[in-house]
Amino acid sequence: MGVLMVPDVYQGLMRHMEWADALVWDSVWGMPQARADKRIREILHHLHVVQWAYLQIWRGESPNVPELSSFDDLAAIQVWGREYYRQVLGQLEGLDAVALERQVRFPWAEQLVERFGSPMPATLAETVLQIASHTTYHRGQVNMRLRELGAEPPLTDFIAWIWLGRPEADWGVSSGA
After folding, report:
1. Contact call for residues 30 and 145 (beta carbons, < 8 A)
2. Residues β-bridged to residue 122
3. For the chain, is the Cβ count within 10 Å smaller at the N or the C terminus?
4. Cα separation of 128 and 43, whole Å?
5. What is the DSSP letter of 168?
6. Digitized pLDDT (tens) for each residue of the chain, 177 residues in all
């Protein structure tokens, strides 16, 4: 067993991820330059594309995610990203250690073979950790861009979420959605 197999840990990671994403979105909405920034829009779209793709794979579906150009505005991306959390938390609810050990098959596995050789199988638990770290990485890119535009980015650290008593995500009302 290479990864901690405690189901509540994975739901906690997703709840933290939602809280942190909501804080970043709130910061974007609080700054006109950020709302208009093409790079922020691209990163937020990508972050949510990958989240949705993995959720669809966990469900046994073929990933089908919309292109950036299919969204009318930033608010539409946020609404779509927010819906992910409702669905992913439902997907992870009730999982046990056996389910977390289940191997996940990726539709792009052949591309990985071409690039890296034969990849080792990944479990559901490991892919949940992947989504959490991937999201953190891109949330950091948005925060860096916010700083470049003159804002003070929010503190989104997991430990801050713990210290604050594991608050629920507050998606605010400033999105216009």
Report:
1. no
2. 104
3. N
4. 20
5. P
6. 455 556 688 889 999 999 999 999 999 999 999 999 999 999 999 999 999 999 999 999 999 999 999 999 999 999 999 999 999 988 888 788 888 889 988 877 777 777 777 777 889 999 999 999 999 999 999 999 999 999 999 999 999 999 999 999 999 855 544
Contact 167, 161 (CB under 8 A): yes
The answer to whether residue 27 sits within a structural domain is yes
Asked if the structure places residue 169 within a domain, the reply is: no
| Global confidence as pTM | 0.90
DSSP string covering 80-140: HHHHHHHHHHHHHTT--HHHHTSEE--TTHHHHHHHHSSPPPEEHHHHHHHHHHHHHHHHH
Q: Which domain holds residue 64?
A: 7-163
Whether 2 is in a domain gets the answer no
Residues 6+ apart with CB under 8 A from 154: 20, 23, 24, 26, 27, 143
Residue 75 forms part of a structural domain: yes
- Rounded Cα–Cα distance for residues 96 and 80 (Å): 28
Check which CATH number belongs to the domain holding 14 and give it: 1.20.120.450
